[in-house]
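Two folds, back to back.
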Amino acid sequence: MKRVLSLMIALLVLVPVIAGTTGSITGMLKDSGGMPVSGGKLTLVNKTMGMTFSATSDRKGAYGFLNVAPGTYTLHAEAMGFLPQDRAGLVVHVNSALRVDLTLEPEKR
């Protein structure tokens, strides 16, 4: 019974990926001077489906959310020393590759 349940769960996860029923959101996180922001925390949220994904920008400021179910998302970005930024209304379609570059402004001291 456990094998059957495990197989069913695996299929539920893998079939959308194999069948091409997902999209992706990738981009760059930079500061207002155009320099990459490394270690930024990004959160992708679809409130309708109750889905949340997390990513961290790499040393070049790049980030990515792969195999994202179609729907409308809000992207939240934050990094130490910068004001957080939200980008709402991001629509992911099947087999789409959405690019969203974000620029973070420094915190006021």
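---
second:
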Amino acid sequence: MSEQQMPKPLIMWVVTDGATDIETRYAARRHEITFDQGDIVTDDVILTDDLNVIRDELWERGLKPIARSEHDDPVIVESWL
């Protein structure tokens, strides 16, 4: 598949509570899911001690929440597409 034919990446934000590599309580990290490279975690992150700050920001960007799966890592609160 040529580069021009490659689909655009799917953008997903993953919200966590208490991830060990984050100093604040809540973090939302932007992931790009690509056809050829899979899940790429970007440096784009929202950090806060208030979960509603993240939810309001992602909602204002036009994204919608997806509940966590029972198979997700326990620190994952939800994802947004």
